[in-house]
Amino acid sequence: MPYRKRVPEFQAVIMAGYGNGLYPLTEESNMPKALLPIVNQPMISYPLAWLESSGVTDVIVVSLTSGSKKLGHYLDRVYEGSLHITMEVVDDNTGTADALASIRDKIKTDFIVMSCDLLTDLIPHQVLDMHRSEDPTVTALFFEPNKGEGGPSGSSKVKEVTQFVGIDASNSQLVYLNNSDDMDSEEFSLRLSLLSKHPVMNISRLLQDGHLYVFKRWVIDLIVEVSHKRTMASIKEHVLPLLVKSQHQRVLADREGVTKAVEASMAANPNTQKLALSLSTTQPPMDDEETQNGEWKSAVNCKAFVLPKEVHCGRANTIPNYFEVNRYYTKITDKVRNPGATNQVQTQVGADSLIGDDTKIGDRSSVKKSTIGSHITIGKNVKIVNSIVMDHAIIEDNVKLEGCIICSGSKVCEKSALKDCEVGGGFRVEKETTARNEQLVDFQEQ
Amino acid sequence: MKIHTIVSQECMSVGDAMRELDAKQLIDTDFILVTGDVVSNMKLDRVLEEHRARRQADKSAIMTMVLKKASPLHRSRAVGDGSLFVLDQASKECLHYQPVKAFKSTRQDRRLTMNMEVFDKHPEVQIRNDLIDCQVDICSVEVPALFTENFDYQDIRADFVHGILTSDLLGKTIHFHEVSDIYAARVRSTQMYDAISKDIISRWTFPMVPDSNLQAGDCYEFRRGLVYKEKSVVLSRTSVVEDKVVIGANTQIAEMSVLSNCVIGKNCVIGKNVKIDSAYIWDNVTIKDNCIVKQCIIADNAVLEEGVTVSKGCLISFNVTIGANTTVPAYSRLTTLAEDADEDSDAELVSEPAVVGATGRGRSFKEAEGSDDSDEEIDPKNKLVNRLAYDMTALHLEDKAQEDSASEFESETSDLEEEEVNPAEELDREIAQTLERAFKDGHTVDIAALELNTLRMASNSNFHEMRKRIVPSVLKNIDVTAKAGSGKTVKEILVRWGPLIGRMIHDEADQIDGLFILQRACATLHNDFTSAKAIFAPALRYFYDEDILEEDAILEWYHDEKSNQGTEIEQKLRGSAAPMIAFLEQSDDEDSDEEDEDEDDE
């Protein structure tokens, strides 16, 4: 027997985008989105750990040119996990589908695509098992975002587009997907033929796309096709809706090359399912009556995995969400909350806060509901509530921070009072500044 | 149980009945509303409990509908009129109701449409196409009053439920109770009659089955193979009773007859060698030897002579006699009522030997036309599908013309196309229609211009697009060969509609653009140069005279290279303008000469 390399079941692709919703945290002066700290750990380490626990061994991280150096450094030098990580760099302003199309040759098996900002407690095999057992074209994760505790909303309010997600209640097939933007604002309308195929359909406006997809191998060919036709082609906006519609609309499936892609993959890998069933003692599943009537049946099958409500899931894609995720993980982390407690005099650190290593906190300061990074100097009589302070920042005496994000290397001088502000990387907040709902960033020529 | 019967002559619908109840003030508590055709074995106590609890908590919950879960193609779901419900599973509230027709002729029929506002209160909804509407409703006292308030409500679902749910003012809610393990269905059509009868025989409706002998005088016994037989039935030795048969008292069945899947009433006489399958034969029917009866209903006192064949889907009414050796065509409906019986009861029945045989008695029944005075046109096909023993293929045979919408699955393709109507084409069509109306009804230029401008704004278009469409449409009306006075000559049309084109032209750039469009339109309308010129030259002249096109623009156009490109005719048309250009250039010179002279004078 010739030696055969073990073929992994899934490859994983992590999309490390720019993070438009996180401006100004993702400015060049601070760090790329994937490295933003969540509970003092880079964001991307969470999806990596998740993938590792799912048994995936090969991961491709797709990064934009900007920020690729810092991310590359992290993955090469700092990351300690056992995954085999390859980094691919694509131009800025590349859509997610375009980015995938560019790494087509590296995709050899069914693949998982996820965003670097997805943090979830979901046990990986639950969603992967759905893909294994039901054999769909794509399995997409949907979750109902937790109601935030209020608090800082961030000054850059990115209005989330609500999505209408229709799922067949009997077999969790994803049958309908529409952005509220594209729809008539007065009327909700749905084809009846869809309802006769899926008599019990749950339509939800609460569910959000988790940006975790498990695709069949052949979908990569379709993605390449789609990315040829459009500029800034995205998985969420173009590929997924196309697949969902192709389940029911033959004309569309033919026109957009879905049918072609399926047939090509069928020819390349003849379905072994039939053979397996004929050898098995299990009864083959009965063919649907409908297929016997010679009716067209799409080769595409989309499934939605709806996260149970009690399982946490969050996407740190906007500033409010970033806050939310940070707060949640700060609460449940098992790290030492205040490693330098012994050297402090009359400091109060709340039980729902976390202080990094080598951070000095001056006398009579208090920290509540906040995440403080490492190597930070906090002066005397400072009050920090509901905030995130990243590494190497300096907070001087008598500063009050509420609902703020202080990026790394920045300095807040004495007696400043900031509320709901984001302070960009390396920025210096002059003393006695009072600001509310502002983004304090160095002006940069574009 | 005490039963009150209320007779009302004017009641034509549920709505009328409810108004009648309200007027007579007969109801002073919450009540259960059931239609007379419901067959069900459900226990209502749980529904009532739920309803009461809900009413305690929320006074606006005025009604609880009982809905039964089934598959969309369940036989006790009527094919012709399904219903779609949009529900909120958390609050058990019904949010939207829409009836579904079997044949979806319009785009509206093929879609579920509901108000977006539903999602504001209920972000998660469930759309159900698998529910049987039992029409068992627990209503609050307000319901009859609401019917009185809204005097146009007729149907309890299509009008009342829909009206309440879509009304912003009433603020009432309608809830549902979903049941799955009981039987409930309505006998709304002969098809449902068939389906429900089969369900009863198969004991789905237990305890309401024949051998419960609920009616006084019944004495059915239940035998193997779902056969129910009265004690007094006379079965001959060689007759065969297969599965699922009900035979009433004193019925006699002679030698060699075969019965399967059928119901036979009391006092029937079935002859020798008769085959009966899936038929419903009521009381006192006589079926003589060698008849074949399939998938039909035969009412009391009917007589089938020897050798009659009744094909599927027939309804044979009271007292009809069918002569020997006749074959009754499929889906016939035979009656002994004389035509116009209600007008003149003495009218003699005229039998139709073609359908009932030479010695028969009866005629085929035609529905009185125009009796249906509802506002909506009901697609006749939607009525047909509710018939007994209906199937799609039969419909195909009868009516080939309806292939366009035969299958609801075909609709997808057309639907897809519809969704992607090109806005430019849309505008084309709208403009063409507007102009057509204007030409035909003789609108004034003002009105036509107003309409067109509205269209332009509605479609977010510009004047160039408008000119591109209006100019050819106007020129199309010109008949080059028409005589003066016919209203079709170049001059008459231009005088009438030229100003309309003028309304679409504002500055010099518009004028030049207009000229190009005029040139192209003339060239495309007529293939030969002479007729194209016959329009182009006078049009140019007219527009110049009316100051719609100014000389600067005409000169600009003439000297523009683009005007001398394009098709042969287009080029020739430009050539034909040469004399006018020469005239214009000359007059231009004269003007300047005059000016020069003036200067000289000073």
Describe what this molecule looks like in 3D.
- The complex is a heterodimer of chains A (446) and B (602).
- Chain A has 446 residues and is of the alpha/beta class.
- Chain A folds into 2 domains: 254 residues, Alpha-Beta Complex (Spore Coat Polysaccharide Biosynthesis Protein SpsA, Chain A), CATH 3.90.550.10; 105 residues, UDP N-Acetylglucosamine Acyltransferase, domain 1 (3 Solenoid), CATH 2.160.10.
- Helix content of chain A is 25%, strand content 25%.
- Chain A contains 12 helices and 30 strands.
- Chain A has a 7-stranded mixed sheet with strand order 3-2-1-4-11-6-12, sandwiched between helices.
- In chain A, α3 crosses α6.
- Chain A starts with 9 loop residues before the first strand and ends in a 6-residue tail after the last strand.
- About 4% of the residues of chain A have low confidence.
- Chain B is of the alpha/beta class.
- Helices cover 37% and strands 19% of the residues of chain B.
- In chain B, the strands form 5 sheets. A 9-stranded mixed sheet of chain B has the order 11-12-15-18-21-24-27-30-31. A 7-stranded mixed sheet of chain B has the order 1-8-3-9-5-4-7, covered by helices on one side.
- In chain B, α17 crosses α19.
- β10 of chain A pairs antiparallel with β7 of chain B, so a sheet runs across the interface.
Keywords for this entry:
heterodimer; A: 446 residues; alpha/beta; Spore Coat Polysaccharide Biosynthesis Protein SpsA, Chain A; UDP N-Acetylglucosamine Acyltransferase, domain 1; 2 domains; seven-stranded mixed sheet; six-stranded parallel sheet; 12 helices; 30 strands; 25% helix; 25% strand; B: 602 residues; 4 domains; nine-stranded mixed sheet; 19 helices; 37% helix; Nucleotide-diphossugar_trans (chain A); Translation initiation factor eIF2B subunit gamma (chain A)
